[in-house]
Design a protein that fits this description.
Length: 412
């Protein structure tokens, strides 16, 4: 046993620092250089405290080492190796669902298992009875096996494993290990400090305070990163929701977006007893435009119509939607029949002015209906009334506006 705390003994313990870091490393989405640096400090501190607990002297202090008796020391070493093997196994089988990571932790488990076996043989037999005739090479077996595993590793590994990637289907134990793994070093540091405190109270107290500071910094960094990730996710969800409710050709709301907003506005109109108007608009002779000028010209006609309709409306609450094919819908909240008819007239004027300059003249047929906060009705009835009004406009020659009362006997 050593008589003075030496750098060689400490480096032996320090060889476990990379293993501890690998085992406790958080998932890729929560990894950052800052947290890795803090974890490195904690792993190095655990190494110092483990050395101090076993040899009774702080590393590099020049103090006389007062190591444990051989038998308890063997038990401590065996326990340490077994703990590392178990942690590596947990990380492999329960802690990761990435194929490349699993290959790495398979190699780590191989290394730690061979190291535990070889070191156990050495400590219990070779070193204990001074059987040193070339037996030191026994401790080189784990490193050789790891080197061979690295040499013969596949050149490329798929990063994802779809069969195992769903967190929702994973056991509670797996989630618990995932969440507890990053704080393992802090708990180990506090536990080792408690052991060392009997003989080195000041050192132990300093390390406990340091452990709390490092854990707090780490938790703050992870919380900050989690908040940023949550904000980015919410922004992405909002963008996806907007995309899902927009028509890709015209840029206005699609049928899904119209149905959603129509239900909301109808409910609001029922509560506030304010009128609600609906305009259904059809591009006249759109099939002829496609047949004569081609589908690209038809698409340009629809985009131009959507632009004109949007330009006419001057209230943020007004909604323009592509209802389907060459048909558009306009929803006017808190707008009675007179206001709706006025908007329809402005649309005809705007499309006429635009047609004078367009290469493909366009006219519109418009059907209008209004619920004036009187009598019983429902959104489907308002839609049917506007649709009948649109049919009447097309039946009477197109390029005109027709209005039908939602309570008309013809609307059922």
């Amino acid at each position: 046993m050593p008589t003075v705390a030496s750098i060689g003994d400490f480096l032996f313990f320090a060889s476990f620092v990379p293993i501890l870091l690998a085992i406790t490393l958080p998932d890729e989405g929560f990894f950052s250089p800052s947290t890795f640096l803090l974890d490195s400090f904690q792993a190095a501190a655990c190494t110092c405290l483990a050395y101090t607990a076993l040899f009774g002297a702080f590393p590099f202090s020049g103090e006389a080492a007062n190591a444990m008796p051989y038998a308890p020391l063997e038990f401590v070493y065996d326990s340490e190796y077994l703990a590392v093997v178990l942690l590596a196994a947990l990380r492999l089988f329960l802690g990761t669902r990435n194929r490349a990571d699993r290959y790495f932790f398979r190699g780590l488990l191989l290394y730690t298992s061979l190291y535990a076996v070889c070191s156990g043989i050495y400590n219990h037999y070779i070193g204990k009875y001074s059987l040193t005739n070339g037996a030191d090479a026994l401790n080189d077996i784990p490193s050789a096996a790891l080197a061979l595993a690295a040499i013969f590793a596949p050149a490329t590994l798929p990063l994802a494993d779809n069969a195992l990637s769903s967190r929702a289907s994973r056991a509670k134990l797996v989630s618990l290990i995932d969440n507890a793994r990053p704080v393992f070093l802090s708990l180990a540091l506090i536990g080792l400090s408690a052991v060392v405190a009997i003989r080195h109270f000041a050192v132990a107290f300093a390390f406990i305070v340091g452990a709390f500071i490092l854990y707090s910094l780490r938790a703050s960094l992870l919380q900050n990163k989690l908040e940023h990730a949550q904000t980015a996710l919410e922004k992405s969800n909002t963008q996806l929701s907007e995309i899902a409710h927009l028509d890709s050709l015209t840029g206005v709301s699609n049928r899904r977006g119209f149905d959603q907003i129509f239900a909301v506005e109808w409910g609001r109109a029922q509560r506030t007893r304010q009128p609600l108007s609906l305009l259904l608009i059809d591009v006249d002779h759109f099939k002829s435009i496609n047949d004569t000028y081609g589908h690209q010209a038809g698409d340009e006609c629809l985009r131009n119509t959507a632009r004109v309709l949007t330009a006419v409306l001057d209230r943020p609450a007004d909604l323009v939607a592509r209802y389907g094919g060459d048909e558009f819908a306009i929803l006017l909240a808190e707008t009675g029949s007179y206001g709706a008819s006025t908007v329809a007239g402005h649309i005809r004027s705007a499309i006429a002015n635009d047609a004078a300059q367009a290469s493909i003249p366009t006219t519109l047929s418009i059907g209008v209906s209004t619920w004036n906060a009187e009598g019983e009705a429902n959104p489907e009835k308002l839609l049917r009334a506007a649709d009948r009004a649109l049919y009447a406009a097309k039946h009477k020659g197109r390029d005109r506006v027709e209005w039908i009362d939602v309570h008309s006997p013809t609307v059922k």
